[in-house]
Amino acid sequence: MRDAPRAGIDGPHPPPILIDGPHPPPFLRADRVLARVPRHVRADSRARTRTARKFGGLGWQDGRTVGRRPACRGGLRLTAKSRQNPRVSAGTIAEAAILSDLASLLLVLALVVPGGFALTLASGVPFTLLGERRRLRGVALGTASGALVVTLLSGPLTATYVAEAALYGAVVGAGLRRGWRLPRTLAVSVLTVWPVLAGALLAFLALFPETRDLVFEQVRIIARGFQNFVGAIVDAVAGAWTSVTCGSACAPAEDVIGTKLVAFAEWGIDRWPVTVPAVVLVGVVFRTWFTRYLAHPLARRMRRSAAAPDVPSPPESDVQPAPVPATLSGVSVRWPGAAHDAISDVDVEIRPHEFTGLVGDNGSGKSTLVSVLAGMPPTRGRVTRPGPVGMGRIGGTVRVFQRPESQVLGVTVADDLTWGMTPERAAGVDTAGLLDRVGLSGLADRETSTLSGGELARLAIASSIAHEPALLLSDESTAMLDRRGRATVARLLGELATQGITVVHVTHELDEVGGAGRVVRLENGRIVPPRSATSNPPGQEPAGRAEPDAAGAPLVRMAGVGYVHAAGTPWAHRALEGVDLEIRPRERLLVTGPNGAGKSTLAWILTGLLTPTEGEVVWSRDVTGRRDAVLAFQHARLQLFRPTVREDMALGVDATRDEIDAALHVAGFDPDTIGTTPIDRLSVGQQRRVAVAGLLLHRPRLLVLDEPLAGLDRPARLRLVELLTELHLTSDIATLVISHDLDDAPRIADRLLTVDGGRITRDSPLTHDLMSTLQAEGW
What is the DSSP letter of 447? Predict the structure, then answer.
């Protein structure tokens, strides 16, 4: 690490920041400062990091990147106001909702599960963790949320159990936060919780005498039941003893314990104004001890997991972001546990106001290079830039990922555009103009959960532009867009470069970077000369083709099918309307259309994951269940759950190892090589083929693939196309492929459906003439 000259800080431009190897620059060494900052101030500073969370901030600990640590806008404000009036942050609200729901679940289960008393005792633990981490305001929010949930599930009486658990959680949580020992925690609980519970119970029994009589009768029944239980044991033991010693000459045994217990219960009932508080006192002491016993190790583990503080950027008034120009000299990155460098000896300069295209095959190191530009330290080499990357700050850096749903945070489109901004700054955002630039006109009030993958990608780009960055990193953000959408976004990125924003765009499609000022190509982690910018050639007809069963009954028939997202709410949005469709065995369909047309909704209905709001889906009589129609998601990683390939394929299916290996072989893998490979070591294309192989073990009649070619380089695309062709030639499985990419359409489909506005606008055999027409229309 070499510090920049101090004199440069006072000038109009910040001094250059040099990163030698894995060490952080000086302004990122905030762990030394934060170690002396009160915890509540640190929590308050985290509340100002919402913007950075959208754009992939990084953190430091002991010279290492410790994960996604967002930069803090505005730095630390050590003021009396922040101490006296701590804000209720979004994190507090979310944590209160989650932990109170867990406590509510324990209380509801306690009503129906045998031995539920133990669950009731454990219900105070979530509130304890909430009190330890989020103080009394978090417990108050959790109490309100939990009381509402249990009232809806099991009636208002259970809400009192939530309040009781919250009382214990508030006291024990405060004790853990302040470092109290057990005796002090018990004393505080007796002084605070016991008067509240004892007083409430005494008032209840005094105001409702009939209920009081019922409660006391239950106490008598319990005492008599215990007397009978003890008496049975005494009789059995005494009978065995007398038969050995004196036979029938001995007097019968007397149940002294049971008799005393019944007498004691009657004595206590007669003096209930005194005995009830005494019993409550014993219960308070026991439950406080039990709650602390369970919560203490959990709280300690949570503190350790959060020990690395969020690392704030310098205050905006001191150090302004200056991410470009960025010069990488001999930069190499090797991920933990990897045998080889992800990128090696990279020398490149990202110049201001330039549109740079970054291309290469899957696994070539493109995303790793983008991470370095976003602020991740290299394993070796040097990164030189004028100032901090300023993730999410004005004049800083933003990053748009291939999976935009991970960074779309607003409930509505307009909310997401201004997420994390101050009200004054949000008021200056031209929402309509931004949405029009990315092709989302008129969707400002749409709920983000109803957007398609392509629409989410456009929204993520619009949100990035709204934050006025100096450097925009587009990491395959166009992978889920249709051809027109990709062209629109590529043109927009070029315009941004002319308007003063430096753009680095990662893509497989060379025509998207045709207007770039420079194209950088990576191959096996190294920069190589770029190839000519030509589109991928269309695939050819397969050597053989199995004709669908045109004479037989259809495998599935959709009649008048429609679907409305959030039906009956103000956010209702129609996705499908009046869909009539028949699919026959061995048939191959390709479904295309613009983003948001309803293609994915159609796939989910066909596979039984959604129930249509109108119409019906009728399957042939030989279809026995939903597993006869299976869906491969857009993001295959979402349906791979186990650590290794073979373990994941065996999940949820009764298949032998030979059957699993046979499915892997059909997917184009060597089972001996790939079977023990960790899922996270697979490329995107390999993950998709593994997902398809796992679905084949269910012996489906219909295989639906949602955007299987998106984000794949040419070799990976060809391997997946070969898999679909092999399935068609060797099995009777019908396939339905949803794709924006028509380059390989003749190899994967015999029939084309175009969906637009929730309706099927074209249903035709896929011929060369139709392909020419589609290309002329811009598909």
Answer: B
Distance in angstroms (rounded) separating the CA atoms of residues 375 and 57:
8
Which residue, among 566, 556, 555, has the nearest Cα to 610 in the 3D structure? 566
Under 8 Å between Cβ of 684 and 481 = no
Provide the whole-model pTM: 0.55
Alpha carbon 673 to its chain's center: 31
Pairing mode of beta strands 60-61, 64-65: antiparallel
Supply φ then ψ for residue 583, to 5 degrees: -125, 130
Rounded Cα–Cα distance for residues 311 and 307 (Å): 12
Angstrom distance (rounded) from CA 631 to CA 737 = 10
Give yes or no for residue 196 having a pLDDT over 80: yes
Structure confidence by residue, pLDDT tens digits, 685-715: 788 888 888 888 888 889 999 888 876 777 7
- C-beta neighbour count of 336 within 10 angstroms: 5
List the structure tokens of 101.
Answer: 């729901």
Between 498-502, 647-651, 682-686, 724-728, the lowest mean confidence (pLDDT) is in 682-686
CA angle 246, 252, 257 (to 5 degrees): 125
The single-letter code of the amino acid at 249 is: A
The Cα–Cα gap between 272 and 558 comes to 69
> From CA 663, how far away is CA 778, in angstroms rounded?
37
The per-residue pLDDT for range 450-486, each reduced to its tens digit, is: 887 778 888 888 888 888 899 999 888 877 776 777 7
* Position 84 pLDDT exceeds 80: no
Mind listing the pLDDT tens digit for each residue in 542-578?
Answer: 445 556 655 567 888 999 999 998 888 777 888 899 9
Q: Where in the chain do CATH 3.40.50.300 domains reside? A: 326-528, 556-777
What is the CATH T-level fold of the domain 556-777, as seen in this structure?
Rossmann fold (3.40.50)
Strands (E), 373-493: 380-385, 397-400, 471-475
* Cα 422 to Cα 178: distance, rounded to the nearest angstrom: 34
CATH architecture of 326-528: 3-Layer(aba) Sandwich (3.40)
pLDDT at position 315, please? 45
Amino acid 689 reads R
